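Long-time lurker, first post. I've been practising inverse folding by hand and with some scripts of my own, and I keep getting stuck on stretches where the structure tokens seem ambiguous. Below is the full token string for one chain I'm working on. Before anyone asks, I'm not after the true native sequence, just a reasonable design that respects the backbone. If someone could post their per-position residues I'd love to compare against what I wrote down in my notebook.
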């Protein structure tokens, strides 16, 4: 199944819902960063949650940056996702394996940690980026995003994410859903939904059974209770380029750039998000230094 997202609204207009299959997205992240089980799960869950968050907005051209640092063994996680379904991310310690808790389950909360924050920065065209954060509640990612949505966005929501890993470290399945309570929702409908969510098969089971995003939403709300609004592909994608990094280099103080040129006679940059490498020759670095000294003199 190709990765995609489905958006729907309930017929009674009380809930909006999004479900996503992101197995390929998380597989790409796993391969690019050579993540081991714990890091794959933590990064994968954050990729899925951030994609749900970024696509659950009506404004196109908007992107978000999510940072999580709970002090656990995986270290910091950074994910950027946009409203067009593209996401990219990395984790500080990719070679982290999962420890099992006393129920023999994967303890994601422990590997992420709870001594820190979930921070979300929104980048909207022509506006200053806006950052808000909440303390991590469980480090399980899904709960933390649900708490963020309630606190910072003041939208009662339920966000669930799941990533399952094969014994060879490849990704078995990854996906998630987001349900938003709309302003007209009745208390009764909300408590019915809460009860329903408790009795549903686990998200991981639905993903293993190859349920499509639409089938996951139907399972939550019941057949014929939903109007499908749209579907869109989602993908791990990095928009970095040699030109883009060169533009960033122009912002580095000229004396630092000349020091690098004199010592290394060139430069190599590795993108954190996708591990692509970009080489700059001494001549190219000289051209960057010229631009940097022009723009830094103007200030
Ligand atoms: Zn990149």
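-- Answer (accepted) --
I ran through it position by position. Result:
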């Amino acid at each position: 199944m190709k990765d995609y997202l489905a958006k729907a609204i309930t017929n009674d207009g009380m809930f909006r819902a999004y479900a996503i299959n992101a197995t390929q997205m998380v597989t790409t992240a796993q391969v690019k960063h050579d993540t081991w089980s714990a890091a794959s799960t933590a990064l994968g869950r954050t990729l899925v949650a951030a994609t749900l968050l970024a696509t659950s907005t009506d404004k196109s051209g908007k992107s978000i940056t999510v940072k999580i640092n709970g002090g656990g063994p995986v270290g910091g996680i950074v994910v950027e996702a946009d409203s067009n379904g593209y996401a990219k991310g990395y984790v500080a310690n990719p070679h982290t394996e999962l420890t099992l808790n006393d129920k023999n389950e994967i303890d994601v909360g422990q590997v992420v940690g709870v001594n820190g924050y979930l921070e979300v920065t929104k980048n909207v065209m022509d506006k200053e980026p806006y950052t808000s954060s909440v303390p991590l509640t469980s480090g399980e990612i899904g709960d933390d995003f649900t708490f963020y949505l309630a606190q910072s966005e003041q939208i009662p929501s339920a966000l669930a994410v799941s990533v399952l890993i094969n014994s060879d470290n490849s990704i078995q399945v990854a996906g998630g859903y987001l349900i938003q309570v709309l302003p007209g929702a009745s208390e009764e409908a909300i408590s019915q939904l809460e009860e329903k969510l408790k009795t549903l098969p686990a998200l991981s089971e639905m993903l293993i059974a190859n349920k499509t995003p639409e089938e996951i939403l139907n399972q939550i709300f019941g057949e014929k209770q939903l109007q499908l609004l749209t579907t869109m592909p989602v993908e791990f994608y990095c928009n970095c380029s040699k030109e883009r990094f060169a533009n960033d280099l122009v912002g580095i103080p000229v004396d630092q750039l000349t020091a690098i040129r004199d010592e290394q006679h060139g430069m190599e940059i590795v993108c954190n998000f996708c591990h692509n490498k970009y080489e700059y020759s001494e001549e190219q670095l000289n051209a960057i230094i010229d631009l940097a000294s022009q723009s830094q003199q103007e200030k």
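A couple of notes from the structure itself: The domain at 4-236 is CATH 3.55.30.10 (Hsp33 domain). The chain has two domains: 4-236, 242-298. Happy to go over any region you disagree with.
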